[in-house]
Amino acid sequence: MTSRAEAADMPNDQTETPDRLRRRASRLLSLISAQSDRLVSEGLGRLDARKWHYAVLASLQEYGPDSQATLSRRTGIYRSDMVGVLNELAERDFIERAPDPEDRRRNVITITTQGRQHLRRLDKILDDLHDELLAPLTSAEREQFTQTLTRLLDHHTRQAPHPPIS
Amino acid sequence: MTSRAEAADMPNDQTETPDRLRRRASRLLSLISAQSDRLVSEGLGRLDARKWHYAVLASLQEYGPDSQATLSRRTGIYRSDMVGVLNELAERDFIERAPDPEDRRRNVITITTQGRQHLRRLDKILDDLHDELLAPLTSAEREQFTQTLTRLLDHHTRQAPHPPIS
DNA sequence: AGTACATCGTTAGTGGGGCTAACGCAACAG
DNA sequence: CTGTTGCGTTAGCCCCACTAACGATGTACT
Fold it and tell me: Which residues pair with B108 in a beta bridge?
């Protein structure tokens, strides 16, 4: 629910956090997710990359050239934000944007050789970061942890609108 | 790492998400945390409350009156944001702010009777929301899940600056 | 007593992420 | 040929985590 980073200003004496807060799964998730985000952003930042870059490159690598809209669906990045991400990737020559001759509404996005290289570097970094993130867990526990997360996620994404039939 | 909500505009055919993405714990955490946040915000919103309200009230309930700075440390809310939160809570008569006679820099924050009532309602709502959030898990699994989260969190909060001694 | 430093509450502002709205254009279905 | 749907793009909103700086007060040191 909250961060635990210590502001330069606001020194961390260890004042106790109330029990109800400490136990809430929502709060734990929020804090760890924040920590994970920090780790990832910082790590990728060292390669002048952001997590969206990874998502897009990974998607292109795995499924080949795609339209922006499809990429958007695969990665979960909003169409509106995809524009900027692709601009950044194009600047760095990791992708190419070309109009689709078969459907002139579309852009076809292709990963370049340098893009593939970059992706490999990112993958390496992410592996390391995950090692840090999950450091206290044995590899069996890690496996089980991500499985649990996946189950939760599945439950909540299938659980779409599901409007009462009435 | 990304959201999965489907924009009204951008319909969700089920386009597949690349494997590397689906497996990354950081992404799973991010998505579930987002979902959890949505659930919580929406649920508390129904009582015209926000998660910070809960954090502050719970803290006051458990430790009694405190200064803003201490509350800030307990809850993880930044001193700068605490101001606004306390304003909202004071508007609703859930807390009272009074200058500390013993240290004129401080405000002493006290929870009111109505604040306690409100806290009880919030607790109830959060319990329900967590039921929904963790629905696919058995109670043993929930227990273990939160324990794992706690372990992870502990690891990363103890792991403070810890600068190389060199 | 005087000076340096820390802490307190507060205001302002930054940057990113998630998300909505609306637009012009192209494709397609009737 | 008309209405609908999908596309890429621009703009903007709100929330959250976080930083910076300020004036006022308290504490410690000499």
Answer: B67, B98
